[in-house]
Predict the structure.
Amino acid sequence: METIEIKLKNLTKVFQAKNKEETVAVKDFDITIPAGKLVGLLGPSGCGKSTTLYMISGLLKPTQGRIFFGDTDVTDVAPEKRGIGLVFQNYALYPHMTVKQNIMFPLENIKMEKEKALERAYFYARLVGIDHLMNRKPVQLSGGQQQRVAIARALVKEPRVLLLDEPLSNLDARLRLQTREEIKRIQKETGITTIFVTHDQEEAMSISDEIVLMREGIMQQKGAPQQVYDEPGNLFVAKFLGSPPINLFEGEIKDERVMVGDAQLGRVEGKKDQDVIIGVRPEGFKIVERSSLKVKVDYVETIGRDTTLIIEKPVDPTITEHSPYIDEDHQQENDHVEDDMAVDEDMQRLQEEGSIEETAPEKKGTFRAIVDADHRIQPGDEIKLAVKPHKMFLFDKETGELV
Amino acid sequence: MLEDRHDFKAWLYLLPALILLIVFTFYPIINTFMIVFMVDYDFLYGDYTGWTLTGNIQAVLGHRQFWPAIRNTVLIAFVSVPLSVIISLFIAVWLNSIKKLQGAFQTIFFLPYVTNAIAVGLAFAVIFNRDYGLFNYMLSLFGIDPINWVAPGSPWRFSMIALLVFITWNGLAFKIMVFLSGLQSIDKQYYDAARIDSASRSRIFRKITVPLLSPMIAFITITSFIGAFKEYTAIVGMFGEQMGYRGQLITIVGLVYEALGEPYVAGSVSLAASAAIVLFFMTLLLTIFNMWVSKKRVHY
Amino acid sequence: MSTQNNETTYDTRRQIIFKRVMRYTFVYGILTFFALLVIIPFYWMILTSLMTPDKIASDIPIMFLRFRDMQFGNYYEAMFAPEAPDFLRYMGNTVLVAAISTVGTIITTILSAFAFARLQFRFKELFFLLLIATMMIPGEMFVITNFITVSRFGWVEMVDQQYYHAVLAMTLPFMTSIFYIFFLRQTFKQIPNELYYAAKVDGTKDFQYLWKIMVPIARPTIITILILNAMGTWNAYIWPNLVSTRPAYNLVSNGLREFATAIEFLPQEEYIGQQMAAAFVITFPILVVFFLLKKHIMRGVSRSGIKG
């Protein structure tokens, strides 16, 4: 199986509703997906990630921009001619066909010889570990098994690119963990260039070679998961990655010191005085003897390995309302935006809902600190905290960009 | 691709149905309307001698069987529909309350729906036979003398009663089936809640079942009325094509087919069309009335 | 164990059982009564078809027949006697007409339902609305012009109507049905879009997708449509009566009605046995189909009531 890289150049998708209203689902998307890698396309619902996937598959036509598979421009090539395999969120197995018939179906379309097709079907069934279920109907399978059938069906044509649209979101938590390892393994074994769409940051980070973050149709950042986590380019990325999420404080830079109210969190060099939003990862705190950050512990969550402290913020914490970049929160529900591709107006409506959808933000007024379980801390204790410098990020209050 | 329109392809898929619909559905609506205004329309060549605004309508209104037809049609509708709706609603509720034999009863009650109205009509005619019919025998047990229900010479009122029995009987099956499926789709929680509130069975029926089922009752009632306005085959089945002794059971649709049965007679096709238009407006009126009522009454 | 002393009085166990028994006795009793009312005409049809004229004319109706008293000759007379109507032929005609119109209907219905459920095209909503509006118009409006139309096609010649003319006239106007198009479209729409996308990615053409994926998935609905349509033809009376000009082209209902009309002024009891035999012969296939495919038929009917 040859591996190819995928290049998207200024990819833009505009949906037009009946009333001529336009929604920009994807805007000027520019990216190269390296050959043989597994790339996670990550973002909240309505961010345009599924639209991007569908454009790569050829099911949707870009409004602008080009798509390259290797050196070939495939923008105007029909889906079936692109050499892609696509796995859907709901698997899209044909319910009246057996597993075997489902897997063979793509091969029948290209009129492959029956013997060869059967051999191929069994090869991929074995690869995903469902070769003992070949004569069952989809309804007789568990969610995880259906998922594997869908992957086998996508792989059986030996595509150059494998596209996965939220493949794990219909599975329960335990299966999800298991299946994502499975997908990683299959991808490694076949070496196929794979794009994986998800709204679940943990999922994306755990299996991707690279992740690409999107928001409202615009790419935010790309890179290796750890790198993006450690060096978020803006407030959105910082907020979207990490569980529990990053803590945000409204503060200021004053004389190269980072201040929240009267407490100093750290120092920065060469930055002018300004109001900033300070993000600190929960694991970025440590308990120290001396610090100006004196806090009272509200709750203590013990999970054994470490301890999470829920702490009242030192200053009145009303930042969330003002900044346009802060009310973004993790979208944990299914990204059903692109479900109904055929109906533009539906798409638009959902898109709008998606972008205005807000889950309740972290309870205001508190933040989380994850500390070593060795510290025996009781609710009500007063402690002093210091911030690890590389776990703290400063963002512009207006734009959300890294300062 | 996906979001593209496929005008040509779509209309190609629609084409077979479209051609048939144009020829046998859309064109007839217009044409039948036009025939109403044509004088001496010749059905084979489409010739006519002139236009008339109300001539054919007047002809049908002045037809000696028009008012009897209206009377019969309205009577059939207003007796058989309420009767069959009420009976079938009760049967459906009872049927829904049992488990054993439910399927068997359901099958039996459904039989009239699938069977041929002509064949069953003939059986009814035998049952209502004056001399050896089962019905008169039953009446004789109560000391009632034999009545001529069906045969030539039967008085209108007796023929009508026999007909109404048959039509009501014939209309039960569909309604029972629809009501039963409606009842089965009502959330059981309502009943559990009502039971806990110690509502009596009749109260549950009046305060929960009927209101929740009311959209369906309204729908069934209106479609049944429209169906009853078009009653024809059942009458032919039981009483023959001349629609009862001396045509005394004529209906609007009967009038249409009677006229259409002799298309070569000048003006008869126009008469048929005019009668059909009358029926159309009766139906329309009823639909509008129903919409108006259901807006006020139906609980959702 | 009595709780009479309490403020609220509870039924004793015995009372509860008694009430329940009373209730079920009432419900089953009344259901049985109505079931009998439904069955009696069918029973009477069969009973009469097995009686000799003197039994038919008996003063006190005979309600049961012993096997040795059954007069199967009526069936022979009705079906094969030279002077009796040719019911075998009518059944043949009906089967042919039902088959042609059903096949035609299902093809046009599947194609149109697919277009409405799956394709985007100009004037889709408008056309759809137009179809719904036509369903409100009484069928007689169509019948009049359709009779004129098939007459002008030369299919209703009074003198020498050809068999294929009669068959065409009886089938062609019924080869599509707006109601069935809606019915099937509903089912088609329930098929997830992803199936279509998946098929597209695999290079399936629209037509292939329709036949290989949608039709098999919608099979229960399609079977329901097939049965309802075929049964409709079997029971059709008005239209065949209008367009067939020769007795030999009769469908079963018309043949049966003509038989009844022919004997109207003859001594009835002589022929009623045969008539009921004929009536049962044409009812019987429908009953068989019904019992075999009960689920499909009832499903279709319940669904048609809910659409309102």
Observations:
- Chain A has two domains: 6-230, 246-396.
- Residues 316-363 of chain A have pLDDT under 50 and may be disordered.
